[in-house]
User: Which sequence fits this backbone?
């Protein structure tokens, strides 16, 4: 049986699967792709070699996961959803003892990124946006309201008044409050190798955003943002792929959050040379890799099932 790659929560992640398949082919064309999801009717089901109707994580024990991994000759696991990162980072070392490489940062790092209040209170981050569980601590007229844990775009209320905020907060499990800051929004993809060195950074503008994800995005050369991002991910040892969300205005850069995973529009960064999945495979077998990023600006449009790219 051929070795396999297990990718979880495939949902409607067409772009991620295309990038992953390319990396698998360039690394080892014989690898099989196993896609997993708790929903048995996901639209990407036909895009993988084998589909696993995966149990919910709170119902999945390590032994059950290990049994499935060994039965299907899985050598690599790539979790794609924020809540899953905690589960797989917890078992990262145990899985490696069985020869299974998991594309996730260490558990302390994942916890740091997952908890958006703790993320701010870490005083090493002097450019992080103020975050509080108490509305009175926020001095601006307009507010950003979101869940404390997990994906920042989930249930977010942006640029609302304090009165509106109090109404919306009741619908959240763990609400946190931030000042609303106007400016240009950027996503920054980074790759940190196993030696904790940041090897590649791609800054991309969020030109059109729908449900928290960039539908139109353009790569930008902004040296100060690249330097800040690289220093941040190295300092906090965010190994593998990470995605920073930043607002840039006349007062400087403001760090919103960091997700320790491949993002919805990170395929644009892959297109210009930040090949996280491929580099992960190479590092797993002890091989070195070269980084060559395109310097000219590329715009990505994700308005259909197939992404399009245009040089600007």
Assistant:
């Amino acid at each position: 049986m051929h070795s396999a790659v297990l990718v979880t929560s495939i949902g409607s992640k067409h772009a991620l699967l295309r990038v992953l398949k390319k990396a698998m082919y360039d690394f080892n064309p014989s690898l099989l792709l196993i896609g997993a999801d708790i929903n048995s009717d996901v639209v990407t089901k036909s895009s993988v070699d084998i589909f696993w109707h995966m149990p919910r994580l709170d119902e999945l024990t390590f032994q059950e996961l290990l049994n499935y991994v060994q039965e299907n000759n899985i050598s690599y696991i790539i979790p794609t959803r924020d809540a899953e990162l905690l589960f797989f980072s917890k078992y990262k070392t145990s899985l490696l003892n069985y020869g299974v490489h998991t594309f996730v940062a260490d558990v302390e790092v994942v916890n740091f990124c997952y908890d958006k209040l703790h993320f701010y209170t870490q005083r090493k981050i002097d450019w992080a946006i103020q975050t509080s569980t108490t509305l009175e601590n926020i001095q601006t007229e307009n507010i950003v309201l979101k869940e404390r844990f997990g994906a920042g775009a989930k249930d977010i209320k942006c640029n609302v008044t304090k009165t509106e905020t109090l109404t919306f907060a009741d619908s959240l499990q763990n609400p946190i409050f931030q000042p609303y800051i106007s400016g240009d929004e950027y996503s920054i993809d980074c790759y940190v190798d196993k030696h904790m060195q940041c090897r590649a950074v791609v800054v991309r503008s969020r030109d059109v955003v729908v449900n928290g994800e960039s539908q139109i995005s353009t790569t930008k050369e902004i040296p100060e943002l690249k330097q800040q991002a690289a220093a941040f991910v190295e300092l906090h040892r965010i190994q593998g792929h990470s995605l920073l969300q930043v607002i840039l205005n006349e007062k400087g850069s403001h760090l919103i959050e960091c997700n320790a995973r491949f993002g919805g529009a990170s395929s644009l960064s892959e297109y210009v040379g930040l090949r996280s999945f491929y580099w992960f495979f190479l590092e797993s077998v002890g091989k070195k890799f070269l980084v060559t990023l395109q310097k000219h600006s590329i715009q990505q449009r994700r308005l259909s099932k197939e992404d399009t790219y245009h040089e600007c």
Remarks:
- Residues 14-27 form the longest helix (14 residues).
- Residues 130-179 form one domain.
- Residues 13 and 19 are 10 Å apart (CA to CA).
